[in-house]
Give the backbone structure.
Amino acid sequence: MSISSLKTGVVSPSSLLAGNTAFNGPYATGGTITSDATYWYHAFTSSSTFTPARALSVDYLVVAGGGSGGGDGGSTSTSFGGGGGGGFRTATSQSVSTAQTVTVGAGGAGGSGSYGIGGNNGSNSSFGSFESAGGGGGGKNWHANGSNGGSGGGGAGTYVYASTSGGAGNTPSTSPSQGNNGGGGSYGGVNQYAGGGGGGAGAVGGTTTTSTAGNGGAGSASSMSGSSVTYAGGGGGASLLGPQGSGGAGGGTAGAGLDNSNGASANGTANTGGGSGSGISVGSGGSGIVIVKYTK
């Protein structure tokens, strides 16, 4: 299969010869443009504009930025929640005849070096008025619930006889759902507390069991780019003593605690909307992506 790549601005809208069978270029500008035998694809990894030269029937995928896990950079202990995956939404056979503003949401900020770090929601992504919500941040203080979002953040662990809740996914509500709830944090005994996993587009975040942190929920696969890619996985929760929660498929990263060397969680994967894991220092959530396709 032959793939051609055309950068934004190479072809102006006025030069797109709609209806001329001799013209083999795309019928719109914006993003990084590729093609196969059937479709043109416009992938946006940063905010821009999609400008059609004629009315088009398009399909699109809109993934928001992932949330960051919660953490505690001022302590050698950690038991907080993973960040939720960014909202994952698709639309098909939509008529577009005018320029559409494309917004690609950033991941929620992580952090290090102070108490109550990370735990920030990702930013929304949109194609015109069609919007996906940023992933919820993980609980970043003991007893804190995860935040609501496209998928919810995981709840923090607690050192009292109590449990916490993961944030609600699919917030604000869309149909079909854009994400799932985060997992709750818990107390399982002395030094046995751990954070829940962030929710993913395809599955809820894992809830803790005694000192085992919750895994991040799996994301959802899409072939909107011309090949199957999984997006919007949740970040893993962290435990005081481990085991740590794994990152959900689709860009989510694992939690990191005392049993994980320096206790630093990695950033969610860029342009997947993956949530970052919790830790003593916390990575940022992964940025989102918008992909538009239409028939040649």
DSSP finds no helices and 17 strands in the chain.
